[in-house]
Specification:
The chain is mainly beta. It is built from 1 helix and 5 strands; from the N terminus they run E-E-H-E-E-E. The radius of gyration is 15 Å and the shape is globular.
């Protein structure tokens, strides 16, 4: 999973989830919940309330005293497709990239392998 501009993850960040059990640990406020919310959001969450926000634009990095707000957020899920179980139009690759991107004031959209 790759995130950019999503909540507290203003810079491009990558989380590798290998086979088996993956744990995410860290102190309060370091972004553990935001990682889980990024996964939920990329998989289709439509409720801003479920994402701890008032509106969906709240998933976009809001800025701090030292960093300006961003105007977009993006989460990319890279999924193994080596068994070719995806719909036919996406089966030309061993990997599926599911991208959800949101622009402030314009809503979000999806792409799968660029389509």
């Amino acid at each position: 999973m790759r995130l950019t501009g999503f909540k507290s993850f203003v810079e491009p960040t990558e989380l590798v989830i290998d086979d088996g059990l993956t744990g995410v640990v860290g102190p309060n406020g370091c972004g553990k919940s935001n990682l889980v919310e990024a996964l939920r959001w990329a998989m289709g969450e439509t409720s801003a309330k479920q994402m701890r926000g008032g509106e969906m634009d709240d998933v976009i990095f809001a800025g701090t005293s030292g960093r300006p707000a961003r105007n977009l957020a993006e989460v990319i899920l890279s999924l193994d497709n080596s068994d070719r179980r995806a719909p036919a139009q996406f089966n030309d690759s061993d990997e599926l990239d599911v991208v959800r991107r949101i622009e402030r004031g314009h809503g979000s959209h999806y792409k799968v392998n660029g389509i």
